[in-house]
Design goal:
37% strand, alpha+beta, 145 residues, 8-stranded mixed β-sheet
Length: 145
């Protein structure tokens, strides 16, 4: 297994990234990643874990400027969840952001993922709120470098 950083120009990995995100983060809520304006992802940093040419975990980082990053679309293949892959990916991603001089990273966590992000070192940065898009409580979380 290999931890990697890539971009949308890597068509094979990006295609696998979209399929993984769609299956895990969108379809369960009656939505599709393919309905989004994917042109907005050009320039984002994509992180992943590849095993034998197959992307098994992914995350996206948006550079919001002034040393601030926004993490989104963190997904691990369902059959591999709980095996440390998500934690390894988050550590790799946060280490890279620290090395690149970011001052903080934020994300919007579904209620079901808050404990995972707490274990990764993030802290809750907002009250819980109802996320209409996914019909689930969520909270903003952050990591200060």
């Amino acid at each position: 297994m290999e931890l990697i950083k890539y971009g949308v120009e890597n068509e094979e990995l990006y295609s696998q990234c979209l399929a993984l995100r769609d299956a895990i983060l969108r379809k369960p809520h009656g939505r599709s990643v393919y309905d989004d304006d994917l042109e907005l992802e050009v320039g984002n940093s994509l992180y992943g874990i590849v095993d034998d040419g197959v992307l098994i975990a992914t995350a996206t980082v948006i550079d919001e400027g002034e040393g601030r990053a926004f993490i989104k679309s963190v997904a691990v293949k369902p059959e591999l969840q709980g095996g440390g892959h998500g934690s390894a990916l988050m550590k790799y991603l946060l280490d890279d952001l620290r090395a690149r001089g970011f001052v903080d990273a934020k994300l919007k966590a579904r209620e079901t993922a808050i404990d995972f992000y707490l274990k990764c070192g993030l802290v809750i940065a907002s009250e819980k709120f109802y996320n209409e898009k996914i019909k689930m409580d969520s909270a903003y979380m952050e990591y200060i470098f």
